[in-house]
Amino acid sequence: MMSRHIRVGFIGAGGIAGTHIGYLKKIDGVSITALADPNRENIEKRVKDHGLGDAKIYEDYRRMLEEAEVDAVSICTPNWLHYEPTIAALEAGKHVMVEKPLAMNVREGRRMCEAAKKSGKVFSIGFQQRFRADVQYARRLALEGRLGKFLYARAHALRRRGIPSWGVFGQKKLQGGGPMIDIGVHILDMALFIMGMPRPVSAAGCCYTYLGNRKPATTAPWGDWDYKTYTVEDLAAGFVRFKDGSSLTVEASFAAHIEKDVFAVTIMGTEGGVYVGDEGLRFFTDLDGKMVNTVPAFLGNVDAFGRKMEAWIEAIRGAENPSPGEDGLIIQSILDGIYESAEKGREIAIKV
């Protein structure tokens, strides 16, 4: 694997870009050489917080792609601004990491993946959950046949009252949706990664808005949100069928009358089952004529977000890409299917 120096530019310099920058600066042979964002305050904060005085600054990302010395681009924009910058960066011959979700819809996502294939550059989707130690171990159990044939999975990304009071998370035209596309995308990635990225063939779903579009009347951990511009769901639920015969239910909420927040996946197979989530990892199977539950004593300390950034750089240097854009496209197709089903009131066929 080559250890050549990688120069990284950023399109979008908001909070998530700061997280990316912090991890990239820890990797040998990586430098941040340019940032593009129409919001000057964002750029100034990133420059100050991370000591990027030598980085070139741009308001227009197109100029950055033309002028700056960058080998790779991290795209940390709101969802509605994933598509065009990704296409532009790939066509400019840059490797790309785009934050989740892949795009606003499958149509955009497919074009992004096509552009990546045509360019021959590394195109990664920002799915950090798959790099968690417990998720990696669950995938290992699956690969070793310990779960058998996959039958059914449950994926929950539920907040009791976690409507973001910042950004544009409540505006469908800018985000594409609410909790399903924002945090549901992560729990779907966890489940599908463990299951080997099965191909979805249909989805059904329901979406409910009942708190976010009303003036906040209850104390919330993140404070009051902008209910006047709130156009996304509070709660979404979906049922997905896969080509291999397995199925999955997914639930995601910004606001729901539940006991507590939940972020967990349960997968059931013919030989065993696994739970990965807030309560750690548990493996369920039959052994010597008895039903047995196994809890690992220690899975190691892994910073999943940091590992995501390291893996992107390693892929640019020649390693296999463990989080390709195509995986994001599969999950995008599920998100689209659930939202379309909720609108039309029927199950939707999926073609990835």
Walk me through this protein's architecture:
- By secondary structure, the chain is of the alpha/beta class.
- The protein has two domains: 6-128 and 306-323, Rossmann fold; 130-302 and 332-349, Dihydrodipicolinate Reductase, domain 2.
- It contains eleven helices and 15 strands.
- It has helices spanning 15-24, 40-50, 61-67, 83-91, 106-119, 133-143, 172-175, 179-182, 184-194, 304-316, 325-344; strands at residues 6-11, 30-36, 56-58, 72-75, 95-99, 123-126, 150-158, 200-208, 235-242, 247-253, 262-269, 272-277, 280-287, 290-294, 348-349.
- The strands form two sheets. It has a nine-stranded mixed sheet. Strands 3-2-1-4-5-6 form a six-stranded parallel sheet, sandwiched between helices.
- Helix 5 links the parallel strand 5 (95-99) and strand 6 (123-126).
- The mean pLDDT is 97.
Q: What is the correct CATH architecture of the largest domain?
A: 2-Layer Sandwich
Strand order of the largest sheet: 14-13-12-11-7-10-9-8-15
- What is the CATH class name of the largest domain? Alpha Beta
User: Domains counted in the coordinates: how many?
Assistant: 2
In the predicted model, the low-confidence regions spanning at least 5 consecutive residues are none
